[in-house]
Every structure is written in structure tokens, then in C-alpha cells.
Amino acid sequence: MTRPALALYLAAPRGFCAGVDRAVKIVEMAIEKWGAPVYVRHEIVHNKYVVDSLRDLGAVFVESLTDCPDDRPVVFSAHGVPKSVPAAAEQRKMIYVDATCPLVSKVHIEAERHRESGRQMVMIGHAGHPETIGTMGQLPPGEVLLVETAADVAQLQVRDPDRLAFITQTTLSVDDTVEIVAALKARFPAIVGPHKEDICYATTNRQTAVKEIAGRIDALLVIGAPNSSNSRRLVEVGKAAGCDYAQLVQRAGDIDWRALKGIGAVGITAGASAPEVLVDEVIDAFRARYEVTMHRVETAREDVSFKVPRVLRTPA
Which structural domain, as residue segments, surrounds residue 129? Predict the structure, then answer.
């Protein structure tokens, strides 16, 4: 039986970013240095495959520091944690390693500097997301106000409209953030923004690549976890760019083949916490069903890397 022809458009960049790569290495190196178990507060990154793989090596994932024993190392996730968490670890004399992405740490530093200048902060982000919780937890209660949409800006109750600054979650949609920033500047003309966009290079690059292929495809598959903010944004970006069928899948087994029946071109990308092995798995699944022609569309090259903390670069 002849298999139908299909063009696969592979977006690049895609998948692991430098911050995720660093965070995964931190857990692996911590297990190698101190042995299992090593505790990890929250999922190190939002991807089940990655978390399960590290669990197999000896990582124990917990949601609270109170779930960790005093005598075992603990790693803080790439999303960042409130200041109270390392303070509590120090009080208990625990060994801890902070795997917070350096680009998230940059936002934390910005928030601190603005507070030192007497400014109240407005954070553009998603309520309940670990990165938002961690960033807002850098300052005392009431010093960081959260907005999720442009409509939220009208409801803000600020201390002094002339002493404000804004920061953003690093994994947001670039286009949505532009609207919210415009609303903030319209209502608070004196508000101060970051010197450089807070949305990380990897998020921006992956969204740009999706926009580039959206007009050439009938369907877009984003490989990533349901709790991955940057992966969900890629689905939204694909739809906004004209690809009506854009779906998030964790693995090849999640693909809805009936929905793809009769189409001629599919785009594939992966969120910043999805490893390339899952991309390969999805491509293989298409090759098993179609005569595939591959098209690689690259919109940027990434050569960023971050060092792991010094404690992991020294002998035990």
C-alpha cells in the first residue's frame, strides 16, 4: 500500500535552551558528586521525560523544602525560588545548589535594583507559575504587583504612579507582552522598563521560527509538557500566525492521527524544556505512516552556554 506524501517542516531553533541544559546537568552532577538520593524542589524543568530520566538516576522530586531531609543535597529548579527558600535551607545547614536559569536570575536582580531606587514593581506573568512565584518572592509582599493581560492594567492599585518599574516572566509570548507593556506605558507614562527585554532569547527564537513556518503548513505540533509555559505559548503563536491546527504533544504517542488525515504539510517544534530525542521520536512516527520530505527552517543560531555552580566543579 502506497503511503501518502507529507512535507515535514522542522523549526530551528527548538528544544533545549542553555538554561534547561544547565539545570539538567546540575542534577546529574549533584548525583555524581554526592550519590543518590539528591532532592529537587519542584520539577527541575517542565518535561515528564526529563524528570523521569533524572528520577531513574536517583533524583527525588518534591514540592516543598519541608519534604527534604537535612542530610541530603537539594537542588532548586530552573524556574527560580523565593528568597525564603535558600534562607530556610541555610538555617537547616543543608547543602543546596541553585539551578535557577541565569536569565531568570537577571530579572531577580532587576527587581532588587528597582526596589533600591524606591520603585514598586509590576510583573507581567502567569499567576501560580513557579517562575512568577520565585520572582515575586524576591521582594517583600506588596512590592510586586502581577498583571496577566492588558485588561489587568486598568485594575492596578499602585503606591505612586511616578515610581514604578515593570519586569516580565521570561517564557511569555513576545506579541502578548507588547500589548501589556503598551497598556502600562499608556496608564503610567513614568514607568521604567528593563534595559533589555526580559523574555529570554530562546523563547523569542522559538516563537520566531514558528512564525516563519506557519504559512507553509496545515498543522503544527509543539513537543512539550502541558505545564510548560514556553511550550503553550508556541501553540498560541502558531495559531496567531495562521496555522489553525496547532497542538501540544508530550510524545509521539499523543499525536491525533485522525485530525491529521488528508493534510500535506506539518510543522514540528519543541519547547525549551523538551529534549531532541522526543523530536526524533515524532519524526520517526511520521516516517512510519508517510513518505516524508524534510524541510529544515532555521531563523537563528544559538551558541549560548552557562556554567554550572562552582560547588559542582570542585571535588566532594
Answer: 103-187
pLDDT > 70? residue 316 = no
Split into its structural domains, the chain has a count of 3
* Contact indicator for 106, 53 with CB cutoff of 8 Å: no
Which CATH number fits the domain that encloses residue 83? 3.40.50.11270
* 179 noted as active-site residue: no
Residues of the chain by 3-state class (helix, strand, coil), percent to 5: 40, 20, 40
pLDDT digits 0-9 by tens, 14-52: 999 999 999 999 999 999 999 999 999 999 999 999 999
Per annotation, catalytic residue among 110, 131, 148, 298: 131
pLDDT higher than threshold 80 for residue 197: no
284 in a structural domain: yes
**Shared domain check, 276 and 225:** yes
